[in-house]
Design goal:
676 residues, alpha/beta, Dimethylsulfoxide Reductase, domain 2, Barwin-like endoglucanases, six-stranded mixed beta barrel, 28 strands, globular
Amino acid sequence: MAEATFQCPYCGVGCGLYINDKGKIKGDFEHPSNKGDLCKKPLYLPKVFEKGRIAKPLYRQDKNEPFTEISWEDAYTILKAKLTNLSPEETYFYISGQLLTEDSYVINKFVKGLLGVNNIDANSRLCMASAVAAYKYAFGSDGVPCTYEDIDDAEAFIFIGSNATISHPVLFKRVLKRRRETEQTVIVTVDPLETETARKSDLYIQIRAGTDTVFLNSVLYVLHKEGWINFEFVERYTEGFEKAMEVARNFPPETAASICEVSKEDIYIVAKIFAQSKKLISFWCQGLNQSVNAVSKNLALINLHLATGRLNERGCPFSLTGQPNAMGGREVGYLSNGLPGYRDVRNPEDRKFIEKFWKAENISPTPGPTVTEAIEEILQGKIKLFWTVCTNPTVSMPELSKVEKALEKAFLVVQDSYWNDTCEYANLILPASQVGEKEGIMTGSDRTITYCHSFKEPFGDSKPDWLIFTQLAQKMGKGNMFPYAQPEDVFNEFKLTTSGRLCDISKLSYKELPARWGNRWLYKDLKFPTESGKARFYPAKFDIAREKGKFILVTGRLKNNWHTMTKTGKSPELLKGELPPFVIMNPVDASDMGINERDKVRIYSDRGYIDRIVIFGNIKRGHVFTPFGYPREFGEPVNILVSDRYDPISKEPDLKYAGVEVIKVEDAENIYRGDL
């Protein structure tokens, strides 16, 4: 392997890594995101580069038949015929926040520019869509308002719906470093489960799942009641405060404490921290985002920052990105309503600019279906070709029985580096190169862009994703729209779409990276891209998808593995301590049911069941927790149990809340499965 620097391909922190000529991974001390620090996961990356890889294109017309190796030319011929014979509305593309920006840009252009349809979404719909919507509502645009530098002079940190110790470990270590340096620093965690992050916090608030909006509204209530609102900031830089307060007045601490099952004293403490700390950063992740009430949860938290003037030198509402390049995908506009440069298909000026720039005949003004909506359209016969790129929907999507039925029905193209669960449903499999085998950029959570050098040859006949779609477009006679010979050609085109936009990188080159777009503070002059130029409060209304079942099932990440284990699950070093698949139960709940630690239990609902080994932990009574990342190789995926309902604004699925029953497996074996 050649020496090279690149961005870690796992979480959204965006750590810079260095690989030496012996194939050893180290942190890049010159990189601003991590300054040489790193977690355990990327250390074993070189060992899994070739395990379980897809080497050649594979095809079968009938899903009951075995695959046959074919050439790339044959694969392109099959795809061209399919795309020619189907209407654009009968096709759908589902891509990933793990792709390089160049990959996402070309695929998005292929779908919205060449095919002229917005039938494309990304797995960011499952993790970041709610945060994107809330940022746009509150500030007029997407983008984290601050950077990691703000950790270094803050004195209060609130983690809500985030177990950053394992999900964003390098970032959390930076927070701990700040606490070691400054005695008055305080860390608060709000979560139904006492996570690793909670155990390292100064205050842990054990909230009932799904009630975050109530809790945060109650904090706003206390701020107002105690005279702690920064009215000078509110009047000068914001609008909509009174409408937000109308909702917050419904949740005095006594009421909220009952709904959230927390103490009213904890609500007062959080309000006091917002009011009196020198600088406060709130971090959140999927615990707020993956909810039927997600955008309200996000806005309720942002409302607290606006009410206390917690922006720039006084703080930041910081949404943690789930994947390494979900931020880059947002810049590209790869969700069903987006266009490059933070544009939207519903905006006539945005469409007109991109149509001219791409030399596209017309871009549809109607957002395409989200990926959960697309599954329904497959089952209805409206969508007939479904193309996934660098994601594993038969493990990560909600209500998996429905997903499986849909993928059985559609002509399924799977484009990936590794064989995964979704390949079992494929007609055509395309081998893709991965980070390290291709070049391009990624953007981490704080808007820092990293150039990823290649340091090894592509495995087998695999190709970079941008090249696969470029060559297909050329075969379809659209070479003038897709003239790219190398990734830098794509980058140089994409960056021009950002000129004059909030995410402007038009002056950057590969050689100047890493670099961050925007200032340290995205809204440093407190002028916002809204009609009035002011930030906006929104009434954070409360709703919850109540389900039958004795327990609320909540999910999260594994400590040393990532997403659906497609890559990390091939490392024995990373699997230690994470097998067999487990569920965390409150010991009192377990005792009441005659369940002991290490017993095997069945967790079930009317959607199906999964089996797990019990571990006792400090989880709120009436709740159980199991990681979402186990593929079928290790057991049944937890998303068998999760509904596909979603937030009405972001359309992000409610992956963090499901009503379930729990029973010992030996008892469950005596129950007819149809009764579960």
